[in-house]
């Protein structure tokens, strides 16, 4: 990219028009290992200002749209599919697990599905392995199974799952990586997977990310209202929310808000709620990127910018507030502009 081309480079991070809709993509009820009924879960999320919720029961597909969809709240049908590596056939303890989430895709994805769509309350057979497995191959088979049924595939909580990077980072057909899981972070400090995301991005994989609760609502772990995405869409409907998720027209958060972000005249910029620091993270050269910190513990910042050098393969932003809560943009991919 020439210096003149770089100076003119402008790529918005969000669409110009639309409304913001907040939702949780990872949630469990009494139909797997959660403690709330679906109705109870809908009620508490709706009261807390959420606009959509996906029930990701373990190996059980659910579709509650006809029961709960209304003017200001919708359900995204889905499930969390499992493949488990056990120590041995005589041991009940799991060594590793792939949890690949399937969320019902767009109308076009449903029409193009190679296999029949799942029905409400349809079970999924857990893939079980003993002693050893081909981790990467198993992950690919599970992802293919989800996408062949018209579902969007995500890869959930790899740190909690005890998988090695090579067992999932090259999985094809994954829309997003769960980089923050509020439940597993509070359960066992295994909720942050941002570093794995950058490994994938720097390997050239174009993949988005999301934050979630993974709520089970027991009394032992605080796992509700701490991880979510905020989607920009023209209206609240399954089709529009999913289309804009697939386009990356959203941000993920555990607290802060992102108002605007993108590239303007060769400079990455962001506007957000009051935070302590803003980081621009890029690929693929050492020393690329920039961190902007408030001048004191009492001060905050709400804007920041990073002048691109012209060889970055992607750029993304993270905003961190005084409590350590974060908001993550999706990456803007720059390979085609080099």
From TrEMBL:
Signal peptide annotation: none
Top-rank lineage group of the source organism: Bacteria
Domain Polymerase/histidinol phosphatase N-terminal: 23-85
GO molecular function terms listed in the Swiss-Prot or TrEMBL record: 5'-3' DNA exonuclease activity; 5'-3' RNA exonuclease activity
InterPro entries membership: PHP_domain (IPR052018), Pol/His_phosphatase_N (IPR003141), Pol/histidinol_Pase-like (IPR016195)
Gene3D superfamilies associated with the record: Metal-dependent hydrolases
SUPFAM superfamilies, A to Z: PHP domain-like (SSF89550)
Annotated protein name in UniProt: PHP domain-containing protein
Protein's organism: Sellimonas intestinalis
């Amino acid at each position: 990219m020439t210096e003149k081309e770089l100076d003119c480079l402008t790529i918005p991070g969000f669409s110009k028009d639309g409304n913001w809709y907040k939702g949780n993509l990872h949630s469990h009820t009494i139909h797997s290992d959660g403690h709330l009924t679906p109705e109870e879960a809908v009620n508490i999320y709706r009261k807390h200002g959420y606009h959509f919720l996906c029930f990701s029961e373990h190996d059980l597909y659910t579709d509650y749209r006809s029961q709960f969809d209304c003017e200001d709240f919708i359900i995204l049908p889905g499930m969390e599919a499992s493949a488990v590596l056990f120590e041995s056939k005589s041991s009940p303890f799991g060594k590793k697990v792939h949890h690949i989430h399937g969320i019902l895709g767009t109308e076009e994805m449903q029409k193009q599905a190679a296999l029949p769509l799942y029905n409400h309350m349809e079970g999924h057979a857990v893939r079980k392995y003993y002693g050893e497995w081909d981790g990467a191959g198993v992950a690919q088979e599970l992802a293919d199974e989800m996408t062949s049924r018209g579902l969007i595939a995500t890869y959930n909580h790899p740190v909690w799952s005890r998988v090695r990077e090579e067992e999932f980072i090259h999985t094809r057909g994954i829309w997003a990586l769960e980089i923050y899981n509020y439940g597993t972070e509070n359960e066992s400090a295994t909720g942050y997977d941002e570093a794995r995301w950058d490994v994938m991005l720097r390997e050239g994989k174009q993949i988005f990310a999301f934050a979630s609760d993974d709520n089970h609502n027991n009394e032992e772990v605080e796992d509700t209202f701490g991880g979510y995405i905020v989607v920009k869409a023209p209206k609240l409907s399954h089709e529009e929310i999913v289309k804009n998720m697939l386009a990356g027209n959203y941000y993920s958060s555990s607290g802060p808000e992102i108002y605007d972000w993108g590239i303007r005249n060769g400079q990455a910029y962001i506007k957000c709620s009051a935070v302590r620091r803003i980081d621009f993270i890029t690929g693929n050269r050492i020393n690329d990127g920039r961190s902007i910190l408030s001048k004191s513990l009492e001060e905050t910042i709400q804007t920041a910018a990073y002048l691109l050098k012209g060889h970055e393969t992607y750029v993304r932003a993270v905003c961190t507030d005084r409590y350590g809560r974060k908001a993550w943009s999706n990456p803007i991919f720059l390979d085609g502009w080099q």
